[in-house]
Amino acid sequence: MIAEVQTAQFDTLKLDCGATLRGVTVAYESYGELNRERTNAILILHAFTGDAHAGGIDHEGKPGWWANMIGPGKAFDTDRYFVFCANVLGGCRGTTGPSSINPGTGRRYALSFPVITIRDMVRLQKALVDHLRIPRLLAVTGGSMGGMQALEWAVSYPDMVEACLPIAATARHSAQQIAFNETGRQAIVADPDFNNGDYYDGPPPARGLAVARMVGHITYMSDESMREKFGRRLRNRETVSYGFDIDFEVESYLRYRGSQFVGRFDANSYLYITKAMDYFDLTNGAPSLAAALEKTHSRFLVISFTSDWLYPSYQSLEIVNALRGRNHDVTYCELSSSYGHDAFLVDVGEQTGIVSGFLARVAREAGIDSAKVAPS
């Protein structure tokens, strides 16, 4: 399944901060086909550093970040469903963000790009769904920040979402989660090449961005997975250096991940997207989480993982308990895994069976026939 990047353009997009973006582009990929009624669509929502390339392989042979979950016979079965994923607002992989050209000035936005929220991201996705003439989504789903967007969809557009599947997610960031994001942001702005965000005509703040990625990546893994993968093994040496060169395998791995990240991600996007996550609070002025979720009409499948200490299970249980308190249809699964927060990406065996069964039930109860393909 070769994935083709597509784009859609919109004249304006109003934001929560009060600003209006003009000339907005959104990049997306799709897999499978719509049925005649256009009711078998599943919107995949990516995590912080993800992009629209969620399934299949691209023209360079690179698999999508959730290719083990998207495809024929997989959790998101493209023989039954039309599955699509868009790069988020503020990103740097085809959707308008701080590295895009400001049509009003002819220069890159950089830090003149307005501050965005998770709800702004969802607002742009809603415009894409309307553009694709999809009247109602069978499901919205994603892990981590993708799960936040899924929850926002269920609350902001309650009549548009048949089912909501937040995975390894939260209804609001804790102080610890904000602290990790702020550490990454400060690593970037402290880089001598940051130049107040206006670095596009010179060297990027590569050192700061690499450190930010290293910090973030540590939070995605568990102590057990790091112990199994690296332990205290030395890297290409018999004894320690008694210096500050790379001694341990884990040091080499983190430096590699940091340098790899610099080549594909924009530092300003890092600032904007992490801030959007920190601002996210599903209650949004409601007296409680249960009150915020009261108006949603979706069926819910909430999944967490035992070793995820970045988005621990208690945060998923807060969502579940709030839904149950309003008598909503909700299924909760805490899956055993040693992979930490990254489990939603790599530990997909049990996850696949749970998701595919849930989606089949939702489609059946909603009377959706995925076999009838829409005319081209």
Structure commentary:
Mean pLDDT is 96; it is low at 372-376. The strands form two sheets. This protein has an eight-stranded mixed β-sheet, with helices on both faces. It has a two-stranded parallel sheet with strand order 4-5. The radius of gyration is 21 Å and the shape is globular. By secondary structure, the chain is an alpha/beta fold. Helices cover 34% and strands 16% of the residues. It has two domains: 6-172 and 281-365, Rossmann fold (3-Layer(aba) Sandwich), CATH 3.40.50.1820; 178-274, Rna Polymerase Sigma Factor, Chain: A, CATH 1.10.1740.110. It contains eleven helices and ten strands. It starts with 5 loop residues before the first strand and ends in an 11-residue tail after the last helix. Strand 9, helix 9 (313-325) and strand 10 (330-335) form a beta-alpha-beta unit.
Query: Low-confidence parts, pLDDT < 50 over ≥5 residues?
Result: 372-376
Assess the beta-strand content as a share of residues: 15-25%
CATH homologous superfamily of the largest domain? Alpha/Beta hydrolase fold, catalytic domain
Q: What is the CATH class name of the largest domain?
A: Alpha Beta
Provide the gyration radius in Å. Answer: 21 Å
Number of beta strands: 10
Task: Count every helix, treating DSSP H or I runs of 4 or more residues as helices.
Answer: 11
Structural class: alpha/beta
Please state the second-level CATH architecture of the largest domain: 3-Layer(aba) Sandwich
Give the SSE layout:
Layout: E1 6-14, E2 20-31, E3 41-44, E4 70-71, E5 76-77, E6 82-86, H1 118-131, E7 137-143, H2 145-156, E8 161-167, H3 175-189, H4 206-220, H5 223-229, H6 249-262, H7 267-279, H8 289-293, E9 299-305, H9 313-325, E10 330-335, H10 343-346, H11 349-365
Parallel strand pairs: 3-6, 3-7, 4-5, 7-8, 8-9, 9-10
Antiparallel strand pairs: 1-2, 2-6
Helix pairs in contact: 1-2, 3-4, 3-7, 4-6
